[in-house]
Design goal:
By secondary structure, the protein is α+β, with helices and mostly antiparallel strands. The protein contains eight helices and ten strands. Helix 2 (34-41) packs across helix 3 (45-57). The protein is elongated.
Length: 239
């Protein structure tokens, strides 16, 4: 809802609200008319027009004279599961611009599943918001044995392609990976980072990468917006 007492300008509150509703699928083809928005949120026509203009400028909606304001379809990022790719590689392959915002990196005590996978209780984690064309798509959480994490931390993690650092700078060879994809409700923090509603469904990817000797390199956990990212594969029937 619009909070008249909030320091955030009303048109920005309305823009953010509409953008969230669009991402959640509440508006399928077009957003409500100016009159409907004015009455629903008790705001002026100027506020509504400023909010819509902002959405138009960022490519979320487009105005069609005499017909209304329509939602611009955005292509989903598609990751094929036949081989291992970084988020950056996948997004670039789609002709989009990848981005990252570093949340934090630090040494932590591992939870049981990660401790078992990495064969140690003290680990290093790197957590980032990942974007495609400036839209938040996923939160990636990377976990490493402490010595690997400290080496990665010596680089600029805001812009780095972590898999490039692991392979080229640290000379670690990826041999194979085991991955699962499930579904989970978004926590309040993740929802804020990804501009979705808390509890809304996210795709959860968990993956362990190992080297040729079967030693673990990385435990990975990613939370993806299903409206902006999908996993695909081709299969053949074998009889």
């Amino acid at each position: 809802m619009i909070d008249q007492m909030n320091d955030v300008p009303l048109h920005l509150q309305l823009r953010n609200l509409l953008k969230r509703e669009i991402s959640e699928g509440k508006h399928k083809v077009k957003i409500p008319s100016e009159r409907e928005l004015m009455e629903r949120y008790t705001v002026s026509r100027t506020t509504v027009r400023e909010a819509i203009s902002s959405l138009v400028n960022e490519g979320t909606v487009k105005k069609v004279h005499g017909k209304g304001t329509f939602i611009c379809a955005k292509p989903k990022v598609q990751e094929w599961l036949n081989s291992l790719h970084s988020f950056t590689e996948t997004v670039k392959r789609m002709g989009m611009v990848p981005g990252a915002e570093l949340l934090f990196h630090k040494e932590v005590e591992a939870e049981p599943a990660i401790s078992t996978a990495l064969e140690t209780s003290r680990i290093y984690t790197i957590q980032r918001i990942r974007t495609a064309n400036a839209d938040p798509v996923a939160i990636e959480r990377h976990y490493y044995q402490r010595h690997i994490g400290l080496l990665l931390a010596s680089h600029n993690l805001e812009d780095a392609v972590i898999y490039d650092l692991l392979e080229r700078n640290l000379a670690l060879n990826f041999a194979d990976a085991e991955q699962t994809i499930t579904c989970q409700g978004a926590s309040e923090d993740d929802a804020n980072f990804l501009s979705v509603t808390a509890g809304s469904h996210l795709l959860v990817v968990e993956r362990v990468i190992k080297d040729e000797e079967g030693k673990p390199i990385e435990y990975y956990r990613g939370h993806f917006r299903p409206d902006m990212y999908e996993f695909r594969m081709k299969m053949k029937r074998e009889i």
